[in-house]
Specification:
Elements (H helix, E strand, L loop, with lengths): L1 E5 L7 H9 L7 E5 L2 E5 L10 E7 L4 E9 H7 L8 E7 L4 E5 H7 L3 E7 L9 E3 L2 E3 L5 E4 L18 E8 H4 L12 H13 L5 E2 L2 E2 L18 H9 L19 H14 L7
Parallel strand pairs: 1-3, 2-12
Antiparallel strand pairs: 2-3, 4-5, 5-8, 6-7, 6-12, 8-11, 9-10, 13-14
Helix pairs in contact: 5-7, 6-7
């Protein structure tokens, strides 16, 4: 894997420097990974890019918001990476949370991603919002979308990832290859469980180390159904907060049906026969 760390100094107005500095009290490097290539973009490197500002109908805050930052495609293009419909973008947060979007959906629906580094509605820092039982801010990097909410395609689950520290670009066929083994014994419930898991669970949990790291790995070295019962897991998925105070896992009792949960557990049971070495 090749690694390149960028150090560039470019012209930037004093007002934009002011906006940039207050948003960067604890500035993290932003890592971009494409295949075997790894690019680490430092705080100084961002001064090479053109700073812009946008107004968006913010999904996280539920209201219009103004931000300073950089266009996502400009950051990627600097490394010779251009939107490719055969790839997915995966955004990783500080706590290990991961979300993906298919680049084909970005292209087909004209979505424009913007990497926000400063909240222009706050004189200092970021406006806080509630995340579970905590109040947090979306820095150091918050990926927002300039397309009006009413124009978003309902079938496309467009992520609004915050506290982003890494963006990876993977081929669609390779991005989730560990989540469904190549086997002919898959039932309909396993297929549906896999789909439901990817939509609702993999941002925080991994299977064969593929997925998020906020929650525990669910398949290796021991599958979760090797030490927890279906009845317990069903109840826990519906309402983690009734088991653990300040649980980061949201309640799914109003999001997933009993059949959805049963299919997820069928999928996890099936994956216990298809573990991959760590």
């Amino acid at each position: 894997m090749s690694v390149r760390i960028l150090f560039f100094w470019g012209a930037i107005s004093l007002s934009l420097i002011a906006n940039y500095s207050y948003a960067n009290e604890s500035r993290q490097d932003l890592t971009i990974i494409e295949g075997q290539n790894k690019y680490v973009i430092t705080e100084n490197a961002f001064r090479h890019f053109q700073v812009d500002s946008v107004v968006v109908q913010d999904h996280v805050y539920g209201k219009p918001k103004r931000y300073t930052g950089y266009w996502l495609t400009d950051i990627l293009a600097f490394e010779g990476i251009h939107p490719d419909p055969s790839t997915v973008w995966t955004f990783t947060a500080l706590d290990g949370y991961k979300v993906q979007i298919a680049v084909a959906d970005v292209i087909n629906h004209g979505y424009k991603g913007f990497v926000a580094i400063a909240d222009l509605d706050k004189e200092e820092g970021w406006e806080k919002f509630q995340h579970g039982k905590e109040w947090i801010t979306p820095g150091p990097y918050y990926v927002v979308w300039t397309t009006p909410l009413e124009d978003f395609e309902p079938s496309v689950k467009l992520p609004w990832p915050y506290q982003v520290i890494e963006i990876s670009i993977d081929k669609v066929d390779d991005s989730q290859d560990k989540l469904m083994a190549d086997s002919n014994d898959k039932s309909e419930s396993v297929f549906h469980g896999n789909k439901t898991f990817k939509q609702n669970c993999m941002a925080c949990h991994s299977i064969n180390l593929e997925g998020g790291t906020v929650g525990p790995e669910l398949n290796t070295p021991k599958n979760i159904l090797e030490y927890e019962s279906r009845s317990f897991l069903t109840a826990f998925i519906k309402s983690p907060s009734s088991f653990r105070a300040k649980s980061k896992m949201p309640d799914f009792n109003n999001t997933l049906t009993d059949q959805d949960i049963s299919d997820i557990l069928d999928y996890l049971t099936w994956m216990s026969k298809h573990k991959e070495a760590q």
